[in-house]
Amino acid sequence: MSTRNRTPSKYIFYGLYLYFSGLSLRRVSERLSCFIRRNHVSIWNWVQKYHPKKISSRKRNILEFIVDETIIKVGSEYIWLWITIEPKNKEILALTISKERNMLIAERFLSGVVKIHGKHPVSTDGGTWYPMACRFLKLKHHIHSPYEKSLIERTMQYIKDRTECFDDYFPCRKKNCNLKHVRNWLNLFVDYHNSELYSVK
Asked: What does the pLDDT average to over 46-62?
């Protein structure tokens, strides 16, 4: 990956690493100044241009899908974030966003997960859209156990903590925005999150 001023890839990925480790865009810019001068806008552009490997690239031994959704704010707009994790390694298997929450969107999300990972039991919080979607896809469905609930809630909170910047840095500047810039950020975040899980094993 390169930018217009041809920033060396090693500095781009180091900057992305710092950002997803929890530093703000401006703090990342300060850290990089030891090697190369790039402002916080440049780093924001790196996040948008980075194309991570597909989440589905690694083979997994999956016992079940733990699924949930939450609401996040992008600029002045609220959108739904849908996520699937697996309990053994706590890896994020799939993630998407939508402007509505209903059975059709739940079915489409689960269908995409099944297409990649095959059919497995689905654990959810009992939202009415999930049982109907699971019946349509012929998936076994059950309500979260306390353990499953704690896993998905921790993952959700972790993501929400990292998306607080969306109010300032990710507002939609176009009418009828398709939220592509938000999807880019989330894909990068998932790629980083899953890579970190395996790097500590």
From this structure: 65
Note the pTM of the prediction, 2 decimals.
0.76
**Do 41 and 119 fall into the same domain?**
no
Range of the domain at 75: 65-180
Same domain, 13 and 84: no
**69 lies in the same domain as 114:** yes
- Tell me the three state secondary structure of residue 67: strand
Name the residue with tokens 């890896």: 91
Judge contact between 43 and 28, C-beta under 8 A.
yes
Indicate the helix (H) or strand (E) that contains 74.
strand 65-74
Q: Which residue has the tokens 């997994």?
A: 60
Model confidence band, residue 167 (pLDDT cutoffs 50, 70, 90): low
Q: Which domain CATH number covers 148?
A: 3.30.420.10
122 within 8 A of 68, measured Cβ to Cβ: no
